[in-house]
Specification:
This protein is α/β, with parallel strands linked by helices. It contains seven helices and 16 strands.
């Protein structure tokens, strides 16, 4: 087994990509340094600060017991590559290479696949045009159910390919409509709106979720913790489950984090002003889990 189809079991092995590998170190006059506006960053990246924050993330992951695998630098990677979650999806049957809706990331998916093959993780399939898919739109509700957001980055054709692919593995794919938000340039992934915290608890940005999505989650027994809405723009809803009621969140979102602690969760934090808030990707975005385990067992 590779992943166990879980968002909340103990995190054992995870792929990350440092700002250095993603070209954040390039000067303002270099091509990578000039691309931040078109990629939707708020300002020109501060490499040293971002690298320091990424190192803090990695320390928290290692402290939680996860083995870190670092994606090597490559000319095909753009600034967005630090958000390793989106370009591939790990399943019990192999890696599914995504076909991102953000065009600069299409080559990144195949790069994930090639790197994971060196780790002994096979590629199950690749999503192809006209389908678009990004794993930030994909949430495992349980071991046999994958909920996929239909929005700017993942389209109906991509969801159809995922449904056909996983149906052959006795795994159901459900679709959730996503809001238009401020448009395609600053899209909201499904995981921008919900984060699974444990087997029956969801951190949610309820006003941005469709009624049918809320009702679906309720019908499956999930309870909701709402974010502090004053922290929406700093991605308060983007929280990574480390397993065993341990969470990794941005330190900037202290009100939401206190809500989570009051609900009985062990919340660890790291600073994300440059690494996360600037580029629009939180703790879940920065990680591509490859192995989770339940009660110390793989899969």
């Amino acid at each position: 087994m590779i992943n166990g189809h879980s968002m909340v079991a103990d995190l054992r092995r995870v792929l990350v990509c440092s700002p250095s590998s993603a070209g954040w170190e390039a000067g303002a006059g270099a091509p990578a340094g000039e691309s931040w506006r078109e990629l939707g960053f708020l300002h020109s990246p501060d490499f040293e600060r971002a690298q320091s924050q990424h190192q803090a993330l990695c320390r928290e992951l290692e402290t939680a017991g996860a083995e870190l695998l670092h994606l090597p630098a490559s000319a095909i990677l753009t600034l967005d590559a630090v958000y390793t979650h989106d370009a591939s999806l790990a399943t019990d049957f192999g890696l599914i290479v995504m076909h991102p809706g953000k065009s600069n990331r299409v080559a990144e998916g195949k790069y994930h696949g090639a790197f994971c093959q060196t780790l002994g993780i096979p590629t199950l399939a690749e999503i192809v045009a006209p389908g678009t898919t990004e794993a930030g739109d994909m949430v495992w509700l349980d071991g046999k159910t994958l909920l996929i957001g239909n929005g700017h980055r993942t389209n109906a054709a991509g969801i159809a390919q995922m449904r056909t692919l996983l149906a052959a593995k006795a795994t159901e794919v459900l679709s959730a409509p996503l809001p238009y938000g401020t448009g395609p340039a600053a899209c909201l992934h499904l995981m921008s709106l919900i984060s699974l915290l444990d087997h029956d608890t969801v951190l949610a940005d309820l006003p941005r979720l469709a009624v049918e999505t809320v009702e679906l989650l309720q019908s499956r027994g999930f309870r909701f913790i709402e974010i502090e809405y004053s922290e929406r723009d700093s991605m308060a809803c983007n929280v990574l489950s480390l397993g065993s009621r341990r969470l990794l969140a941005l330190e900037e979102n202290f009100r939401t984090n206190e809500k989570l602690r009051s609900a009985g969760f062990d919340v660890r934090t790291f600073p994300g002003s440059e690494l996360c808030i600037n580029g629009g990707g939180g703790p879940t975005c920065l990680t591509r889990p490859l192995l989770r385990s339940e009660n110390g067992r793989s899969g």
